[in-house]
Input
Amino acid sequence: MNQDDLFKKISSHAKEYGFIFPSSEIYDGLAAVYDYGQNGVELKNNIRHYWWKAMVQMHENIVGLDTAIFMHPTTWKASGHVDAFNDPLIDNKDSKKRYRADVLLEDYAEKQLQKAEKEIQKAAKRFGESFDAQMFRETNPRVKKYLAEAEETLKRMAGHLEKGELDEVKQLIEEKGIADPVSGSKNWTDVRQFNLMFGTQMGSVAEGGSQLYLRPETAQGIFVNFLNVQKTGRMKIPFGIAQTGKAFRNEIVARQFIFRMREFEQMEMQFFVRPGEEMKWYGYWKEQRLKWHLALGLDDSLYRYHDHEKLAHYANAAADIEFRFPFGFKELEGIHSRTDFDLKRHEEYSGKKLQFFDPEINESYVPYVVETSVGLDRLFLSVLSGAYREEKLDDSSERVVLSIPPALAPVKVAVLPLLKKDGLPEIAREVMQGLELEYNCQYDEKDAIGRRYRRHDAIGTPLCVTVDHQTKEDRSVTLRDRDSMEQIRVPLEELEERVKKKVSFTELLLKLK
Output
């Protein structure tokens, strides 16, 4: 199956099984806005819960915050969003389609990397166990050419964007022969900048209202509350403030399902450190955040680091943790060393000091900041993409299964009476009552047992408990595992402990210790 077909199947599956619906679908929807369905909201809540427990509850020096979506408009002037929060856009004159110029170039570079990877894979099959992938990468002329082309493209793009040389960005697109993905046309307009913030008014009438913005990120709410949290929590450097919440960006080129949306949710942590120690903590959080992702148990090869060539105006170091989506490796989480830019800018614009008195060195200073920022919606899509499987079984039948990490699964346990009679539903309800206070369970008695198993495979339920006639005799049930499809008999008194070992957040969080 090619990757485009796979992505279409994942998107279709998400709707069919109650994970994600187009927003306002009965009115033909709203571009790049989505609603989370009954299974989607459970998965989303579980991902958020995993992040919060790992980030806040497992760190004594990190606390949480929940700030307002509306902020004083000067906040966004101080942060640089009013003047510099722009995307470089380019239009194709023939198709009338609009694109982000940097994304076109990044996609071109990614294709070069994929060509190199295909050459390496072909060579690996040809040479077998004796194959040295690293040596082949460094010596094969064709592979070296692809890798160099990708690196050169990204470096030139970063340099031009850094200097605001939009005409050079267009020239690079033309030089690389990049065509409109829809029409194949190479008839491009000039590149121009577009500010991404949504504006609105606060007041009883629009004419007398104050100009406000929907926040484009959650970080600024943390920075303006730095002293409130530090003083009331008696926090000592280094310490962190974490927040999850909605952010809004007027993405002109929103695409790829929920990967890039206009309304999305961020999970961010700002870690305040002593100046001069930021690179130590940058390295620490870069390592810790990848460890958090890998603990989910998806294929390790789906993740990689990408160190930034082009740094944001506030950063002295930045890296992305990228995930291999069906449409290629894309940013999943960013780790940034933001220096003291944000706090100093808010000092300047507010006239208030935002400093910390450090008793260890008997000195006051504006702390430096290391940020971790991950999109909850992108994480959701990465879990769906990494978990989706189409399997042929021994009996020649097929099944679609979502091998979602058990602790994140929307439904943890399905309780299934074999028949809707002979007292089996009553026992099944008793089993449900014993589990539902701790875990999201689902009772299902419709259709043959095989169909019910397939239904729960498709939404990622890790365990199915089947109550049958033997249950009435010896108080045991059949426990079926989603991934292996193994079925074992388990006494009812052992059931809760087995469920806990399989699906609890504790088992997942222990991997981070």
